Amino acid sequence: MNSEVMNEKFVSEIFGDSKFYHQPVKEIEEKWKLVPAFLKIKGLVKQHIDSFNYFINVDIKKIVEANDKVTCDADPLFYVRYTNVHVGTPDVDEGFNISKPTTPHECRLRDMTYSAPISVDIEYTRGTQRVAKKGLLIGRMPIMLRSSNCVLSNKSEFELAKMNECPLDPGGYFVVKGTEKVILIQEQLMKNRMIVEEGKYGVQCQVVSSTHEKKSRTSIFVKGNKYFMGHNVFTDPIPVSIIFKALNIINDQEICELIGIPEVQKLIPTLEECHNAKIYTQDAALVYLGNKLLAKRYAVSASKVKTPSDEARDLLMTTVLAHVPAEGYNFRLKAIYLGLMVKRVIEGQTDKKFLDDRDYYGNKRLELAGSLISLMFEDIFKRFNWDLKAIAEKNIPKIRASQFDIVKYMRSDLITNCLVFAISTGNWTIKRFRMERSGVTQVLSRLSYISALGMMTRVDSQFEKTRKVSGPRSLQPSQWGMLCPSDTPEGEACGLVKNLALMTHITTEVDEYPLIRLAKNSGVQDINMVASFAIHSPSAYLIFLNGNILGITNNYKKLIKVFRLTRSKGYISGYVSIYPNHLHKCVYISSDSGRLCRPYIIVRNGYPLITEKHIYELEKGIRVFEDFLQDGLLEFLDVNEENDSYIACYERDITMQTTHLEIATFTLLGVCAGLVPYPHHNQSPRNTYQCAMGKQAMGTIGYNQKNRMDTLLYNIVYPQAPMVKTKSIELTHFDKLPAGQNATIAVMSYSGYDIEDALIVNKASIDRGFGRCLVYKNSKCLMKRYPNQTFDRIQGPTIDLTTGQPIFKHSSLDGDGIVSPGELVTNRQVLINKSIPKMSSVPGSTTTSMEYREQPVAYRNDEPSYVEKVLISTNEEDTTLLKVLLRQTRRPEIGDKFSSRHGQKGVVGLVVEQEDMPFNEYGICPDIIMNPHGYPSRMTVGKLIELLAGKAGLTEGKFHYGTAFGGSKVEDVSEELVKHGFNYQGKDFFYSGITGEPLEAYIYSGPVYYQKLKHMVQDKIHARGRGPRAVLTRQPTEGRSRDGGLRLGEMERDCLIGYGASMMLVERLMVSSDQCEVDVCNKCGRLGYCGWCNSCKTSAEVSSITMPYACKLLLTELQAMNITARLTLNHYCE
Amino acid sequence: METMNDDKPRVILEEYKVVQNLPRGSTVFTEQFNSKNFKKNFRIVIIRKENYEMEFDMIGIHPFLANTFRRLMLSDVPTMAIEKVHIHNNTSIIQDEVLAHRLGLIPLRADPRLFEFKTSSNEANTEHNSLEFELKIKCSVNKEANKKDSSRVEDMYKNNNVYSKHIKWLPTASQKENLQDSNVGPIDPDILIAKMRPGHEMDMKLFAVKGCGRDHAKFSPVATAFYRLLPDIKIIKEVEGEAAYRLQKCFSPGVITIRNEPSGKKIAVVNDARYDTSSRNVFRYDDLKNCVVMSKIQDHFIFTIESVGALQPDVIFKEAVRILRDKCTSLLDELNLS
């Protein structure tokens, strides 16, 4: 009794009161503040910049090192060796070999490429001399903005402003020929890993090997009861046993051991293949393989011809499972790997759970700008060297006065042009992999800040868009937290184009060597030291490092623990992932590039390691994000390791098993979806629609928007930060560069002009600047020089002799023939009065005729514009470049498109005077009236809450938060409204503005953030009575820009046919289109002219009929092809 | 809810909708308009008249008439506003059109009754139909030595903010004699027009004309003019104790008071329903919602006129009445003509 009391006392002394044991872990307030800390060092587009930095500082050196020697067959002494490579800082060539540093903005304005010189140090022979040269320019590398070599990196806001750069601009794109180009993140299947899946013949195991040199695919599949290996260097599938023999595993027992399945009898048919083919030695197997080789497409010089078996051996070494090393023809590692592949196939046959999922994000890698450019650069660099070699071979045998100096032949334009071409067109052609990809780069959309930011996080997958497959398009559970579940386009690219979530990081490559050492020190036996039978022993776990077998261990738990500990202590890179796969009995260690990962708070023994204290330190600036990583409080998990962890979303969910805690749940959404307030209350497609529309919203582009001269730029005159913010909005700085306005809306019906989502807008609001926007367009021209010493010129305005004033077309021109800023230009007026020299008809004639032809740059738009500014500069080729920026101010009108942040778009249906608008007890009349029918089917409850929270924010004078999975609660918001004398439901008493009597219903009204979308009637309005026709068919032209006709299409035609309105059809399809009078000869049935039939030489039986010109054209075109179509005419009444 | 029996026409604010209550006697709604009766019943009570704001009650009038006055004040009473801007130079970052738009929205002090409408936009500006202003300002670096170390923009630069007070009136012809300097110009001196930095410059002539709110909201003499119906709250079931305090919270302050009964009970009574905001928050409480009937008297309008400053609110109302009269007479004239 006594001891029990003592015991209890003792227990409570140590562990505290037992009543508190079951209480959930206290919530860490403000732990979301880690997100801005993360974004501060990682940034939203850090993955692009990181990968480019890795390429420019590390990878390029490796590439040059790997291809560092150019030799020549003509002279065995000749060589060029690259000792170093260096990418400088961006500059422009000013001519005469003088270059000056440049800024991205200068390049944008002057249509230049923002690039830096690539210089190499070389050592080569000139004659018999050995010469070393430093800093030799071999090409220019387009530089990613904000990368380590960019002038913008590590600059303060003030310095950025000096360079005309917006401090909020994320960078991560290139400026090529004046356009901003993004290399999209490419998603692809993981390389060098086994994928077991259902194939053509049944279960198959596939490996795509990829090294710097080669890319090849090896697959093991089962056909009948035998196992085969398929590879594209062999014509036929090869029985696995023969491959094993060729890999110098002669012993059948060892083959079985390497495959390592208990049911050996399954292998008997495969092993029998060997005996059937009478292959018992490695040589015999190689001869067999040699016969199965794919015929070479090109002949090799006779001296180099190898025997087929040697060829096969070489191929086995270099191409088959290329990523598995086989040094000195030691094929053991390949054999083990092959054995494992067969094992996986057999396992996959017995149990479906062994099959892999292609769409699983752990099996995917994202390729970033850096790695794509590195592929490109290596290819070009090889070509460059090959060209040098060819030049050397051609020139060395020649006897010349001066010695052959290779440096003279090292021209920089090959590399420059190839890189610029690739980035500006997006065609990625890698010769050595026979890779041909288009659409890799896209022009950075500068419609709004968000659209630019959204583009930087876009992930493109390689799947065909036309294929109707659901797998790659559907939402994968493993996307959680890595890719935004909402942000994907609708239509054909749905689910294929994705966007990164807020905290996603994409890894760059980490050196393998320390990892190998660490693994070996933690009890991994080297695979080469392990006997075949031990590899698949039940207690052993295989260790993989980046797809290669490293060894086996009997204590995998220790290995993982050691790895995770050293990682959290910072001894190995934090982006290395390690996780066990108990199904495969493997431990996978990855340090390759392109893995998706995100940070988590580590939880130990049911308590998160981060406490209030740490957050306090973070707020005070004592800690930064990296300190959390250094101290082992946070760690990055990739998709695979994430699936080996127990992750709690909130502190209250933590149990003893929990290993990690989410930093903030709203980071599972991306940049665009982050704008939506209360997205967790919306129907999911609505958030997706908003993600698409947020990119079309007009607003602010950047702080430097007034310095830009884009082809098309939309700005709103009075942008506002939304009343209801989200954390993501603050993190992405949307509140500093907003795209929309807070409109007071009333949810009610009004007139009949609000059906189908149309909006009623208050005219007084428009008068006061609501939805007013600026549209900037530019027109530019180049002043070319021609080989015959002539060049384009600009002349002043033509003066009307009678009035002494410039003619109408030239009335806004300045004295120099270019419009002056501030001038109004109307349709067809000239902006730049350029004329070009008439080309002399005789090519090569040197007579410089001083004749010029006018080729003015005219303004073509029915609505007039003002000239904002004019730029006169030169481009890279030193040609004069003229740019004119034109501006239009537009006020909203009927038909302009608006949208709230909940995928609720609508056009203006009616503009109503203020006095006709309903008003409430406070005299407030809404800016916008929205029809309530927009709600029930769309279920955008988030919008309702946004309105309520916005209204409460107005009364309190503060911003409310609508952060995903959080935000201000409706209850609290209602209470705030009540406090200020408003109805708790947000419904107000309104009076009709027309009758002046109270409305029967209470109206839900308050502020909602509205975006003006770029689709405006002014750019689309089109009608025509008569107008231009196409020359060939004489039918009306097509399209608004050509003042085209309005097409009566097939379906409309069908309606008329169905209705039986035949005369209407004749009128629409012929009379109003391309009616034509033709003479037809009744005798021969051919077409005549002027009442004369030329084939019958008579006018006797020629009658005139009307038909569409297109029909006449067909008849004559057929005639031109020696086909006569004869018409038989009958009287209409007969 | 059962209808209330009294003589006044009213609407009852129910939980989900507003219902009409039919009074026993005849009201402005039922009887035909006759001026004798109207004169007898109609009353205007001015509650409050501050500088630019005014509140008055209009009692015994049909809503159509009350609404007409509201509408006329919003969009038919003319004022002067800047309509044309001749920009000689504008090197600031603000675009010409946006600047002109901003200038137009500045309320001007000028009695519109002294001016005529321009019949067409081409008509020449005369002293009778327009006012001319000038805005000429240049931003420069502040060279005062004592403020050299400051990095505040207002110390570093001169004229970095363009305010409405920088607009200068240029009297034309006899305007100088007829109008006083203090009677013409922007009403508020501190409306920010633009922000500038050294090197930026503005030089423009502004022309104000007379117009009405229907053309553009800038001509409207009021920020807003509106009315509301007089609220009337009746407690039909006694509410006491804690519930009484709760009831008090449901209305605007001062609407409900708590009376201490001799018996020690505290019951809620209606004090003054006039300033209730019709928030209807009683309906949150199931026990209270049947204790109160909220209604509004339909022929009692509480007008609020918030003048922008060009005209006094009472003048605006009188103008509106005059316009209505003119419209009526012109209609009658037209009818008589035909």
From TrEMBL, chain A:
One of the Pfam families matching this protein, by short name = RNA_pol_Rpb2_7
- List the SUPFAM superfamilies: beta and beta-prime subunits of DNA dependent RNA-polymerase
What are the recorded GO MF terms, alphabetically?
A: DNA binding; DNA-directed RNA polymerase activity; ribonucleoside binding; zinc ion binding
Q: Where is the RNA polymerase beta subunit protrusion domain?
A: 43-416
Known catalysed reaction(s)?
RNA(n) + a ribonucleoside 5'-triphosphate = RNA(n+1) + diphosphate
UniProt superkingdom: Eukaryota
Indicate where this protein resides in the cell.
Nucleus
Q: Name one GO biological process term.
A: DNA-templated transcription
Q: Where is the signal peptide?
A: none
InterPro entries noted in UniProt: DNA-dir_RNA_pol_su2, DNA-dir_RNAP_su2_dom, DNA-dir_RNAP_su2_hyb_sf, RNA_pol_bsu_CS, RNA_pol_bsu_protrusion, RNA_pol_Rpb2_2, RNA_pol_Rpb2_2_sf, RNA_pol_Rpb2_3
Q: Which residues form the RNA polymerase Rpb2 domain?
A: 191-367, 442-506, 543-603, 625-657, 1044-1128
Ranges for domain DNA-directed RNA polymerase subunit 2 hybrid-binding come to: 672-1042
Q: Which UniProt keywords apply?
A: DNA-directed RNA polymerase, Metal-binding, Nucleotidyltransferase, Nucleus, Transcription, Transferase, Zinc, Zinc-finger
Q: Which GO terms describe its cellular component?
A: DNA-directed RNA polymerase complex; nucleus
What is its quaternary makeup? Component of the RNA polymerase III (Pol III) complex consisting of 17 subunits.
Role according to the record: DNA-dependent RNA polymerase catalyzes the transcription of DNA into RNA using the four ribonucleoside triphosphates as substrates.
NCBIfam families found in the cross-reference section = PRK09606.1
UniProt family annotation: Belongs to the RNA polymerase beta chain family.
Stated name of the protein: DNA-directed RNA polymerase subunit beta
Automatic annotation (TrEMBL), chain B:
Q: Which organism is it from?
A: Phaedon cochleariae (Mustard beetle)
Protein family according to the UniProt entry? Belongs to the archaeal Rpo3/eukaryotic RPB3 RNA polymerase subunit family.
Q: Which HAMAP family match?
A: RNApol_arch_Rpo3 (MF_00320)
The UniProt entry lists the main location of this chain as nucleus
Q: Which NCBIfam families match?
A: PRK00783.1
GO CC terms:
RNA polymerase I complex; RNA polymerase III complex
Where does the record say this protein resides? Nucleus
PROSITE patterns from the UniProt entry: RNA_POL_D_30KD
Q: What is this protein called?
A: DNA-directed RNA polymerases I and III subunit RPAC1
| InterPro entries, A to Z | DNA-dir_RNA_pol_30-40kDasu_CS (IPR001514), DNA-dir_RNA_pol_insert (IPR011262), DNA-dir_RNA_pol_RpoA/D/Rpb3 (IPR011263), RBP11-like (IPR036603), RNAP_Rpo3/Rpb3/RPAC1 (IPR022842), RNAPI/III_AC40 (IPR033901), RNApol_insert_sf (IPR036643), Rpo3/RPB3_RNA_Pol_subunit (IPR050518)
Q: Provide the alphabetized UniProt keywords.
A: DNA-directed RNA polymerase, Nucleus, Transcription
**One of the GO biological process terms:** DNA-templated transcription
Name the Gene3D superfamilies for this protein: DNA-directed RNA polymerase, insert domain, RNA polymerase, RBP11-like subunit
Q: Which residue ranges does the record assign to the DNA-directed RNA polymerase RpoA/D/Rpb3-type domain?
A: 53-334
GO molecular function term, any single one: DNA binding
A Pfam family assignment:
RNA_pol_L
